[in-house]
Amino acid sequence: MLLLAAQSPGTSAPARGAPLSDLVTLTAVFAVAGLVLLAVSVAHRRGRIGWLQRLADFAEETSGLPGWAAMPQAVGAVSLIVAAFGFYWDVSWHIDRGRDPGALANPAHWFIIIGLAGVALAGILSVVLGQDRTTGSSIRFGRDWNVPVGGLLLSICGLIALAGFPLDDIWHRLFGQDVTLWGPTHIQMVGGASLATLAMWVLAVEGERAAKAAGRPVDPKAMWRFHLSLAGAFLIGMSTLQAEFDFGVPQFNQLFQPAMIMLAAGIALVAARIRLGKGGALGAVGFFLLFRGVLSLLIGPVLGRTLLHFPLYVVEAAVIEIVALRVPARAKPLTLGLWSGIGLGTIGLAAEWGWSHIFMPLPWHATLLPLGAVWGFVSAVCGALIGALIGRAISPPADDFLVVRQRLPRGVGVALAAAVIAVLALPLTSTVHPYRADVTMDPPLGIPGGRVHVTLHMHPANAAHGAQWFNVTAWQGARTGNGGLVVKDLRETSPGVYQTDGTVPVFGEWKALVRLHKGRSLMALPIYLPADPAIPAAQVPPWPNVTRNFQREKQVLQRESVGGSQWLQRPAYALLGALALVWVGSLGWGLRRLEGAVPPDEPRRGERIAPTPEPERQPVGARS
User: Fold this and answer.
1) Nearest to 327 by CA among 278, 265, 376, 263
2) CA 201 – CA 542 distance, rounded (Å)
3) Distance from C-alpha of 323 to C-alpha of 149, rounded to nearest angstrom
4) Is 321:282 a contact under the CB 8 Å cutoff?
């Protein structure tokens, strides 16, 4: 009777892709939308319709930027907000509730689909609108059709991210559901949308330069505020792949967290300080904290999902601002990046270390040393130098005269790329130790409340010494209990004996396991897993007294990820890796093109601008 009380029929949600009815619906919708967009684009370029240009003109009058920059910026900004909300809601949804009954049954998916489609639409609008005259960085597609490079980059990011949805379903059908944010197609969707923020920044710079060249410069204060919002959005984008750590359910080495925080801070905040000047880094952090704070309130208390945490970044921004007081940001951006990186990798990293003990769900303990400090420092320096290159590319060529570009020493670019790849790739490898534990649960089987205190007797007794985290995690129980995520630390009460500091649920659709992260090892010991016929997977009962072995954590956390041969996985990973290279490489190419462009009314680099007499006043409405 006790065993029957603990059993669960398991979830009926599919484990290998969405239902065909959902796929047919989505395919039909996107096919119709694509045909309509193609028809409108062709009609506009051939001069058969005028309403699209009128909308662009209205956006130009409102913002001061050319229509091919202003209208896509509005569409892209709204779309990214929608996609970001949907993304974080979706992650919390899966943590609390598990798999979806279908792609269209999860309300968060609608926000993601609409948001990603809007990002792609924004890029396509910029390409279709284009303009008659070159901007210096634009690409000529026809005799009177010059496409802004920012619009092209935005299209690439948006389309690659949007393509992740059908590819994700194909991946699930081949290999099962990889219930992690860092699945290949998930990274494709998240990464494409995140880097779209930089593409929008490039497009804004192009538009600002074009407006100035046409004799209609945008109000500097309004443009500064606009660039500030783009810098904050860029920081938000650079921080999205930290979400597993932000929610407290990371499936990867904790070394990734300080590395990703330092990379995001260096890339986004150094670029912000160079482009915006004094206060730019702090302003970008203010935008970030406001947006992420509102998201946390919406997803946590309002929607009742697991609370979303976030890095602080305030100390990192202050470090960059202080360095910039001594190093001229526009004249010596790489020097600023180097010294900022050193400050971020020491003072900034120490501040985030303290913040992890105040707000983050998994604090950084001394066991993370010394590798955590090394990984954070290297990432901070690399990120700050990359941010300096980005900031240099999106900054005005000069104020009073054009400064000769500070050269990147030969080989530094290759070293930067190699270092970033190393800090992100090396922690991916993991090992498993032959540990086991005697598990005792009180009361037996959680009767009557379905919740138990867990006691572990570890073999060997020192197996958990020096662990980055050692806890009991229960998740995906929102359908049958209050809340959907419970994390209880294990405290050592006597040598080799550990107890939870509270109870954990072991009934219904909850999944409960012991998690041990020690060095390069990520291990798990299941306490209770419901039966899952869709995988199929048998129930792991919550026996009151049982001895179980630790196993590779991925086998427990991602037990839906089954099927598919290694020979099929390798080309699939290679294809997705090629897509990632396309969007990252295209952004690098676009930034170089933007930096090397010289608008028609500006001299070449290093050429001083001679004083010119005050121009004669022209009639109102005259265009140069």
Assistant:
1) 278
2) 53
3) 32
4) yes
DSSP 504-532: EE-STT-EEEEEEEETTEEEEEEEEB--B
Q: Give yes or no for a contact between 235 and 296, defined as CB atoms under 8 angstroms apart.
A: no
- DSSP letters, 130-174, are -BSS--SS-EEEETTEEE-HHHHHHHHHHHHHHHHHHHHHHHHHH
Place of tokens 């946590």: 300
Q: pTM of the entire structure?
A: 0.91
Contact (Cβ atoms closer than 8 angstroms) between residue 435 and residue 550: yes
Where does 239-345 have alpha helices with state H?
243-247, 256-264, 270-276, 280-297, 314-326, 333-343
Domains identified in the chain and CATH numbers = 11-218 (no CATH), 233-408 (no CATH), 436-557 (2.60.40)
CA distance 599 to 214: 10
Residue with tokens 């003990």: 357
- Residue pair 318/351 in contact (Cβ under 8 Å)? The answer is no
Instruction: Using alpha carbons only, give the angle 582, 583, 585 rounded to the nearest 5 degrees.
Output: 65
Tokens of 65: 């930027």
Degrees (nearest 5) of the Cα angle 521, 524, 527?
165
**Tokens at 351, concatenated:** 């501040």
| Residue that has been written with the tokens 């058969």 in this structure | 48
pLDDT (tens digit, 9 = 90+) per residue, 81-125? 999 999 999 999 989 988 877 777 788 999 999 999 999 999 999
First to last CA, the chain: 87
User: What is the C-alpha separation between 402 and 605, in angstroms, rounded?
Assistant: 5
For 449-490, the pLDDT digits (tens) are 789 999 999 999 999 999 999 999 999 887 644 568 999 999
The per-residue b/e assignment along 317-352, b for 16 or more CB within 10 angstroms, e otherwise, is: bbbbbebbeebebbebbbbbbbbbbbbbbeebbebb
Q: Which strand (E) or helix (H) includes residue 104?
A: none
3-state secondary structure of 49: coil
Residue 442 forms beta bridges with which residues? Answer: 453
Helices (H), 277-313: 280-297
